[in-house]
């Protein structure tokens, strides 16, 4: 089932998603989870001189090219074999399973998603996230397709992200400004099989799509996107474009 066409531009992620889920009457419940990202690399590891060199060159490559940090770091490793321990750091995964908050469709329809975000107590860079996995009315598990892009915010990059989203979300999508980059949500629930195909297609458009993000979602078996403010330059994501069916 799809959403009734509506202009969401300017709405926050919690408000837009409340309206979206209220229109998806095949959804019985959704899940939220608190996400506390890993500390910075230099806080987790006592970096050697070789590893610190890779770290610093990766930061510079990210600044110049817009690549995500780990893509930049992995490109440096062939030239610094003494820093291969960084592969272990690149593969670290933080699961969100085991601490979900469930919201029913009736709770969402009465403003429950916005209330949950307003009541969330942020600690450090922790944020409240929406999980893609939903329980449908018939008891089956579906997913609301969602993606994190790794294109620094700019008018040109937004056009590029919109072009990518149009190809990855053929039934239409909603694009949000996340502070430094962009998030996107589909407008209908898809099956688990279609969800895996969706993430595979998304990986083909890396690095426009955030490659580590997609990899971690495949490991987790579901996606997550931030609803509240996180760390750094992040903000509560806001809708900036409504993209039609392709």
Account of the 3D structure:
The protein has 2 domains: 164 residues; 50 residues, no CATH class. It is built from 10 helices and 10 strands. Strands 1, 2, 3, 4, 5 and 9 form a 6-stranded antiparallel sheet that branches. The chain has a 4-stranded antiparallel sheet with strand order 6-8-7-10, covered by helices on one side. Strand 7 and strand 8 form a beta hairpin. It starts with 12 loop residues before the first helix and ends with a strand.
The N- to C-terminal Cα distance equals 17 Å
**How many helices does DSSP assign?**
10
Overall geometric form:
globular
Rg from Cα: 18 Å
Quick one: biggest sheet?
6 strands, antiparallel
In total, the number of strands is 10
- Structural class per helix/strand content? alpha+beta
Element order, helices and strands?
HEHHHHEHHEEEEHEEHHEE
- Unreliably modeled segments: 1-5
Report the β-strand fraction as a percent range: 15-25%
Average residue-wise pLDDT: 92
Helix content: 25-40%
Q: In the residues, how many domains can be counted?
A: 2
